[in-house]
Amino acid sequence: MKDSPVNLLLKELIHFDKSSATSVYIQISQQIINAIQRGYLKEGMALPGTRVFSQLLNIHRNTAVAVYDELASQGWVEIIPNKGTFILVPKPKTASIKARSNKINDAYSYPKTTGFPFQTSFHLASTQEFSETKYVLNDGQPDLRLHPIHEFSKWYGTSMKRKSLISKWNNTSKNSYSTFENQLCNFLNATRGFHIKPTNLISTRSTEMSLYIISQLLIRKKDVVLVGNLSNYNANMIFQEAGANIKTIPIDENGLDINYIEKHFTKGKIRCVYVCSNRDYPTTNTLSAERRLQLLQLAKKYQFAIIEDDFDYDFQLDGSAMLPMAVSDGNGMVIYLGKLGQSLFPSFQTGFVVAPENLISEAKNYLQMLDKQGDLIQEQVLSELIYEGEIHRLLKKNSIIYKQRRDYACECFKRYFNGSIQFKKPSGGLAIWIEFNPSISLIQLSEEVAKIDVLLPKTILYQDKNTCAIRFGFGHLNEEEIEIVISKLKLAYDTITKS
């Protein structure tokens, strides 16, 4: 019986790894299903009994029983007592479309284009670049390898088992706030000098979602939005899609030039000003305390909103981060955007908005439409990380690593480029603003460095008649990778400057 055609086929097709995280019976079940789908095992064929099957694959008989039970539960086999286990092929539950004879091929291939017109969006065209290069640069993203995987498995598992999870899903109380909202509120009050309540706060999936919701509330077609003359392209896309008329404001070593705003605009002509709280994007220059006060006073005088994006507060590497302008705002002019959990894997990061209660109330209406489900497990995990102090521990631990990487990157740039570039060591964040002097073709630099296994995306290149610079993200690279990438950049630089 062991040498029957079915047994020989099973022995040849089935392989499993006992050290794998996937149970052996699941591995075997999946391979049998695959054999049925590919036609190796036909409908009606009898599988060997569990005793023979276990001997055939050298597994415990209980494992063989579990395999057959799993296959039966999915409808791939039928177990008939005292007779055996037989292959079934599940019937399709949907009927095929019967097409006219001259359209048979069309009926069974999905169309590439719609048969109706719709509004395309130039502003939302993807800027992502794909490459097979080993090293990929970005604008300053954290290193996912630093995510505490083993600890998170424990925290996530604990959160999934909490009996209170179901009651949170079914909560209909209007006046109660979740544990997460209260914990996030406490965290922001403790770390950023706020004195807010949950009524001043909304959490979202990301900073981009936060900004999208705010732009829908604030901006109408042709409203003037002021941004730095070099600014965040993601934010600009969101503003443009809302119909804004974007105007650029000069930026110097002290950040956004507030005097320029006062000289060139009048009351009622500005809808909002977008500003980065701790470090300007992309230049990393910090808005000075004097200019912060000046901007707050001008916002009150001209009646415009300030959107304060504090995207890299978690990565203050030297000294203390400047407190948000929103902390000093007694007139309700500032909408504060931030992120929580940037030291964690992206699916556990969350965005948030801090603003006056009436704006938050409207923002929640938008959020209810966009993301009614939310992620209670993520919120539960983050709540416990805040309560237990783990967020602080992770931030401190990773900040030491990022500071070492920043210092090493600066050292490498000095060593390899030796005066042909200019940069200032940033006080925080995960990127360095590198200016080339004299100017070179950054597109050509990107093409040359791609030949030696480095992707230099166009989204981090800044070139016009006054600027020739890149925003070099170092956070996702270790010291060995930093040196390799910078040395390759120098090789590409030498190639184009000597040609």
Automatic annotation (TrEMBL):
<protein>
    <submittedName>
        <fullName>GntR family transcriptional regulator</fullName>
    </submittedName>
</protein>
<comment type="similarity">
    <text>In the C-terminal section; belongs to the class-I pyridoxal-phosphate-dependent aminotransferase family.</text>
</comment>
<keyword id="KW-0238">DNA-binding</keyword>
<dbReference type="InterPro" id="IPR000524">
    <property type="entry name" value="Tscrpt_reg_HTH_GntR"/>
</dbReference>
<feature type="domain" description="HTH gntR-type">
    <location>
        <begin position="22"/>
        <end position="90"/>
    </location>
</feature>
<keyword id="KW-0805">Transcription regulation</keyword>
<dbReference type="GO" id="GO:0003677">
    <property type="term" value="F:DNA binding"/>
</dbReference>
<dbReference type="Pfam" id="PF00155">
    <property type="entry name" value="Aminotran_1_2"/>
</dbReference>
<dbReference type="InterPro" id="IPR036390">
    <property type="entry name" value="WH_DNA-bd_sf"/>
</dbReference>
<dbReference type="GO" id="GO:0003700">
    <property type="term" value="F:DNA-binding transcription factor activity"/>
</dbReference>
<dbReference type="InterPro" id="IPR004839">
    <property type="entry name" value="Aminotransferase_I/II_large"/>
</dbReference>
<dbReference type="InterPro" id="IPR015424">
    <property type="entry name" value="PyrdxlP-dep_Trfase"/>
</dbReference>
<keyword id="KW-0663">Pyridoxal phosphate</keyword>
<dbReference type="InterPro" id="IPR015421">
    <property type="entry name" value="PyrdxlP-dep_Trfase_major"/>
</dbReference>
<dbReference type="InterPro" id="IPR051446">
    <property type="entry name" value="HTH_trans_reg/aminotransferase"/>
</dbReference>
<dbReference type="GO" id="GO:0030170">
    <property type="term" value="F:pyridoxal phosphate binding"/>
</dbReference>
<keyword id="KW-0804">Transcription</keyword>
<dbReference type="InterPro" id="IPR036388">
    <property type="entry name" value="WH-like_DNA-bd_sf"/>
</dbReference>
<dbReference type="Pfam" id="PF00392">
    <property type="entry name" value="GntR"/>
</dbReference>
